[in-house]
Amino acid sequence: MGYILAWIFTRTDLRFKKVFSTLAVVPFMLPSWSYAAAWITLFKNRKMAGAPGILEVMGFTIPNYMAYGAIPIIICLTMHFFPLSFLLFGNAFQRIDSQMEESAQLLGANRFQTAVHILLPVMRPAIMSSILLTFARSVGTFGTPYTLGRPVKFNTLSTSLYFTHQSGEPGVMAVIALAMLLIGGLLVAMDVYVLREYKRYVTMSGKGQMSRPSALGKAQIPMNILVGLFLFFVIFVPLGILALSTFMITPGWFVKDNFTLQFWFAKETTIREAVPGLLRDPHLLTIAWTSVKVAGIGALICGTLGTLVGYAVVRLQQARLGKFLRHLSFLPYLVPGIGFGAAYLVLFATGRGPIPALYGTLLLMILAMSVMYLPLTTRASISSMAQMGTEPEEAAMILGAKWSTRMWRIVIPIQKKSLFSGILLAFIQGMKELSLVIMLAVPGLEVLTTLSIRYTDNALMQMSNGVILIIALITFLLTVISQHFMKTNLAQGIGG
């Protein structure tokens, strides 16, 4: 899906590219289990406690394999992660000289042959990177397999790890966490191999590069309609289902008496005693503030460390230490999130020497998040630092400036845009994080994502969906603010 969409955006004269490219990255900004929540709201049957789904209320009989298990999980994860591939492929397509395709067509190749025999081989590094990153994220994701797999006892490594933690089996939990960490190590080794292979697929040289999109002609209108419908179904339909469910006592029953505002504003909901509406819950603001603190402080730590690592990697790029830091800093992103959280839980569950037990504290969540998202700020810093020459620092050294002075007065001001973008991206990821914090959060120290899962466990899907919408709203607002101040967006250039 990401490959086809990126090809359409970069290699054809599709209209409304800027609008479509911005919308195409929206699913990746949503919590990973938001699609699972929309799916269960639509397809849920009576096997699971609580109100049935919209389709069953409307008279349809939903089989278990469509409501729960592998098929729904694969579909939901695909809709959430395809923007990651879209961004990778879009940037890679832009670096391919269109003269390669034109030369193939002059020799008699049609569009399909050109795509298969020219573009596909050249895109091999991007394809491998997409597979590695998507696989790593999918293995570690918790919310989607938990929501859709639990009713039929369909377990993955992430849900098995959580259940062993809940049942008090630390030995089994440690074994599963170790297996997930080994998977992460294997993915890092594959990432190193892919980076080495990049040199064999150079598509930019010192010669002029041309980017001449192919004309769609009569297919212009149908292609725009198809792309628009696709984005409508993967963005607006799921969000619409989630929003509609929060105003209905029984989802799918479209009668006047079934519509209500109680899940947002009631002092006590009618479907569960002592459960107030979301906006009347005195704990919601505290939990939201905890989410902001954890994500915000973690993002600031990520930004600081990412800048230092990026500086060291670029300035020591010929040394072994620089290469080691480059690969080591990317390791957390390839390690499954829940496995990473379990490792921190085991490491800091009890006091070790001068380090006290951190389980159940805000500090442990901040520490785990600041390391987990370090690759985001590190990669942004490396890319930006590589474009900065050494002349400004050398001039400051001649004038006697210390390293700390050069960093504070020269490097950071020049790199502030990249630094801010990395911090913001880490903050957004932290706000919607569940897999990493599901075992680190305890009663009295919850974040919005764990609150949503708690409502799901108690068969309060309307409340759970409402929390997801609150997270999505915060994420969207932050994205809009970042675009306004930084004059950029994640898909900048792909829709140009």
Characterization of the model:
By secondary structure, the chain is an all-alpha fold. The protein has a single domain (2-486), classed as MetI-like fold (Orthogonal Bundle), CATH 1.10.3720.10. 67% of the residues lie in helices and 0% in strands. It has 25 helices and no strands. Helix 12 (157-166) packs antiparallel against helix 13 (170-197) and helix 13 (170-197) crosses helix 18. 42% of the residues are buried. Mean pLDDT is 82; it is low at 199-208.
Q: Topology of this structure?
A:
Blueprint: H1 2-11, H2 17-24, H3 26-29, H4 34-43, H5 54-57, H6 64-67, H7 70-94, H8 98-106, H9 111-122, H10 124-140, H11 143-149, H12 157-166, H13 170-197, H14 220-245, H15 262-265, H16 282-315, H17 320-334, H18 337-348, H19 362-372, H20 374-385, H21 391-398, H22 403-414, H23 416-431, H24 448-457, H25 461-486
Helix pairs in contact: 1-7, 4-11, 4-14, 4-25, 7-10, 7-11, 8-9, 10-13, 12-13, 13-17, 13-18, 14-25, 16-17, 16-19, 16-20, 16-23, 17-20, 20-23, 21-22, 23-25, 24-25
